[in-house]
Amino acid sequence: MSENRRISFRNPADESFTTKLLLVAVSLVFLAFFLFLPLVSVFFEAFREGWVTYEEALLEPDAWAAIQLTLLVAAIAVPLNLIFGLAASWAIAKFEFKGKAFLITLIDLPFSISPVISGLVYVLLFGSGSLLGPFLKSYGIEILFAVPGIVLATVFVTFPFVARELIPLMQDQGTGDEEAALSLGASGWQTFWYVTLPNIKWGLLYGVLLCNARAMGEFGAVSVVSGRIRGLTNTMPLHVEILYNEYNMVAAFAVASLLALLALVTLALKTFLELRFGAGAAGGRH
Amino acid sequence: MTITTAATPARWRVKQPSIIPGFGLTLGFSLAYLSLIILIPIAGLLWRTAELGWSGFFSILSDERTLRALYVSFGTAFIAALVNVVFGTLLAWVLTRYRFPGRRLIDAMVDLPFALPTAVAGIAFASLYAPNGWIGSIFMPFRIAFTPIGIVIALIFIGLPFVVRTVQPIMEEIDKEVEEAAATLGANRFQTIFKVLLPGLTPAILTGFALAFARGVGEYGSVIFIAGNIPYVSEIAPLLIVIRLEEFNYAGATAIATIMLLISFAMLLVINLIQAWSRRRYGNV
Description:
The structure holds two protein chains of two kinds. By secondary structure, chain A is an all-alpha fold. Chain A contains 14 helices and no strands. Chain A has two domains: 1-46; 51-281, MetI-like fold (Orthogonal Bundle). The longest helix of chain A is centred in the N-terminal third of the chain and has 34 residues, at 61-94. In chain A, 43% of the residues are buried. Chain B is mainly α. Chain B has helices at residues 2-7, 23-61, 64-97, 103-109, 112-115, 118-129, 136-139, 148-172, 176-184, 189-218, 221-227, 237-246, 250-282. The radius of gyration of chain B is 24 Å and the shape is globular. Classes of the chains: A mainly alpha, B mainly alpha. At the A-B interface, α2, α4, α5, α6 and α8 of A face α2, α3, α4, α5 and α6 of B.
């Protein structure tokens, strides 16, 4: 009897070992089905026919053009949203003004809009039935089914990423450092460059990473505005779709594996930043 | 700051005085950029819808195919968000409370759906859950891919991190003493978790649910490969917008987009209300 009682004794504010084991096991099975197997399958399918086929699929001219276009679009969209993120978080975190909460809601807006709608708004703005489209076209400027449209749609979708990381971070840091720098005679620009920027650099890097991952991976918005012209307006995700629909599975997964690799590198850097600088430097939800 | 605010009662000022420069420049630039990229294009969408008139708007929305597509999108997103509430909360619990090998890795991997391009997830899920895929073949003759269940599977993937990442920080802040007090007062572990801990987590869980649901409703890339896209059965609303656009039926695309947009705004409002409510009640989130 007493023997029994001793065995069954455990911390009453904790679960039994069996329960813990069971809950961890259930979580792992769930993750296997919804996270790990899909990720593994991308690389498995990509290398199904060996390294040579994989390499060929990536070096094929249309795939290569898609990779270049994706890099180009990200190289334009990310810096634009980076500048916006810095400006918006400076205005929001360093000053008190009316309508601030509403402004933050507006910045978050693209997160709650379907990517397809993000593309659609530009089709309506620059399409053949609009005012702007035919006007620009008469000057030889193509927005839709061309690179500018793809950039615009990508900028729309990745709009909040940098601002969202920086606003809470800069609000936490307050205005004390900047006021000290200014009272010691620093100019506004010096204050930003030597005081604010070093304070926020890791959060900024984190926001840029997430922004870049989304910019390179965006599918819905870009697919609506691109027109999917092979070798011209096809980004990597769009090229994946075309190859998949042509039942060219190995090539589709080969291009997809590059994007998956990008996601893994992004996650690794993100985890590193969090471990190194604490969740505070990289804490926002997205 | 304190000096200036003390000197001037600034209740009705647009901006509180500050010695920090750059307000006009940064706010001006932010507003201009926001207007150009986001607000004007969305206003254009709403303008186009207004041109349809009420009767035009409603005749598109009452079309059987549109209604079914909206039903499929909202229904599957709702079910997926419910599944994510259960497993996302469980996962958050396991990650905050238990120590086991690989925990760090799993914690990092929860964010994979944020980082993995949706088209990549889409083709991976489609090939895995297809009748001849690794997982799909286990469940045969029950079909997962190319049915609404396939849509739910993809949306569970997409929504999972929203629930985990909203609930996890709140769980980490739970004071262990609360549970010990409950245990001292005679509650068993089950009662402690469901009657003491869960009520405090409810706002976070609701927020996570709303975020996952909102994301699921608009999701496109990860869904279209696995959905089968059969009109009236497994055709989602964003896909119908794309189809209408490809038919040059701009009115049709616009009307569906507007109704989805209005519902998203309503949900954004709900999320903000939940957070305001929980701040009042629990002082955080």
